[in-house]
Amino acid sequence: MEISNGLEDVCIKNTALTFIDGEKGVLRYRGYGIKDLVEKCSYEEVSFLMLFGELPDRKELAQFTSDIQKGYALPEFTRRVISSLPDDSDALSVFETAFASLSCGEDGFVWSRENIARKAPEALGRASAVVAAAFRHMVDKEMKMPVPTDSYAGSFLNACFDGDVSRQSVTVMNRALVLYADHEVPASTTAAIVSCSTLSDMYSSIAAAVAALKGPLHGGAAEAAYAQFEDIGSPENVDSWFQKNVVEGRRRLMGFGHRVYRTYDPRMAIFKSMARELSTSAEEKRTLEIAEKLEKLGVERFSPKQIFPNTDFYSGTAFKCIGFPIHMFTALFALSRTVGWIAHMSEYIENGGRIMRPRANYTGHGPRVLQSASQK
Ligand code: SDX
Q: What CA–CA distance (Å, rounded) separates 153 from 345?
C-alpha cells in the first residue's frame, strides 16, 4: 500500500466549516473572510457560527453567552487537580490534564446535535476557566474563575490579571481568539477526530487534541518562535544568529512554513499589525525589530521553496504585549481552538464518520518457529 508520510494530501472528511486556499493564502470560516470576522465579530459570535452554521441573532447570542458563562465555574475536583500540579507546569500541560479530568463522569456521552448544543458552550466556558487557572498557577497567584462581563475575551483576561484590563488588550485578545478558532484538519483536530470516531467523549477527545497541539512543529511553534527572538537578544545579532543557526546549523526557523500554505499565512499579517500596535515600550519595540529583521531574512532564504511566515511567527509578540509569559502562548491557542475541535468532531459524526482505522505495510520477519530459549 502507498504510504502518505504525515498524511500529506490525504482527505479524511468533507467540511463546511473552514476553507483554506494554500496557494492564494485565503482563510474563510463558513464562507466569511478571516479579516472581516476579526474586525467585526466577537469570539462568541464566531463560535456560534462554527457550531451552528450562521452568525447568531441578538437573542441567540444572549442565550449562547449565558450557556458559556455557566461553564466558568470549574468543578471543585478539577480545581484541585490544577492546584496539585507542579508550580512550573506549562499552561498547556495543565489544560491537557484538566480536560482529561473533566472527562470523569462523561461515560456514555452521546454525539448528538442536542448534546453538542448543550455541552459545547460549557466546554468553551471551562476552557476559559482552565487556561486562566493555569496562568494564575504559573504565576503563583490564587485561582480566579471568570465572571460574566461584556465579552468572553474580557472575562478571560479579568480572570488572569488583577486590576483593570485595558480595552485594547480585550480587543487584541478577542481578535487572537477569532484568528486561532479553526484551521480545517491540522494534527490536533485530526487527533480529536480520531478519538471521537471511536465515540469517546468530548472532553477526552479535546485532551487528545491538546496533546497533539503541544509539539513545536504545531501549536508549540508560537512559543518556539518567540524563544528565537529572546535568543537573538538584539537587532544587531539577527544576521549572525540566522547565519549560524539557520544557514549553517540548518535549524528550522520556527514560525515559518506550513503544510497547506504555499504563500503568506493570512493570519500572520493580522498578528503582525497587532504586534506593531501593541509594541510601545523600548523592550517591546526591540523584540518587534528583531522579529521583523528575522522575518525578512527568512523570506529571502525560504520563499523560493514556498516557505513563508505562518500565524505563529508574531502571535507570541502580541500575547507578550498583553502581559502573558512565553509558556502561556500555546495554551491561548488551545483556548481559541477548542471551538474548532468541537465543531469538526460534531460535523464528522453527524456526517456518518466511521472509526478511524488505517493500515500499515508489514516489513518485518516472515513466519518463524519459536524455539524455547533453552534450545538456543
Ligand atoms: C501551525 O496545519 C495547520 O493548519 C497548523 C496551524 C493551525 O492553525 O492549526 O496552521 C498552526 O501549526 C502552524 C505551523 C507552526 N509550525 C512551525 O512554525 C514549525 C516550523 N515549521 C515546520 O517544521 C514545517 O514547516 C511544518 C511542520 C509547519 C510543515 O512541515 P511539512 O509540511 O511536513 O514540511 P517538511 O517538514 O516536510 O519540510 C519540507 C522541506 C524540508 O526541506 P528538505 O528536507 O526537503 O530539504 O521544507 C523545509 C524542510 O527542512 N522546511 C523548513 C521549515 N519548514 C519546512 N526549513 C526551515 N525552516 C522551516 N520552518
A: 24
Report pLDDT digits (tens) over 214-270: 999 999 999 999 999 999 999 999 999 999 999 999 899 999 999 999 999 999 999
pLDDT of 112-143, one tens digit each? 999 999 999 999 999 999 999 999 999 999 99
The residue extents of the domains of the chain are: 18-216+325-350, 221-322
Grid cell at residue 307: 516557505
- Topology of the domain comprising 221-322: Cytochrome p450-Terp; domain 2 (1.10.230)
Active site (catalytic) residues: 258, 312
Class of domain 18-216+325-350: mainly alpha
State how far the Cα of 239 lies from the Cα of 214, in Å rounded to an integer: 29
Residue from 252, 254, 300 to probe ligand 1 pocket by mutation (most atoms less than 8 Å from CB): 252
> Who's near 66: CB < 8 A, 6+ residues apart?
none
Secondary structure E strands in 192-288: none
Which pTM was predicted?
A: 0.96
Give the binding-site residues of ligand 1, using a 6 Å CB cut-off: 6, 183, 186, 217-219, 221, 252-260, 305, 307, 310-312
Nearest to 207 by CA among 98, 134, 75: 98
Residues with Cβ within 8 Å of 302's Cβ and at least 6 positions away in sequence, in order, are 253, 256, 257, 308
CA atoms within 13 A on the CB side of 222: 30
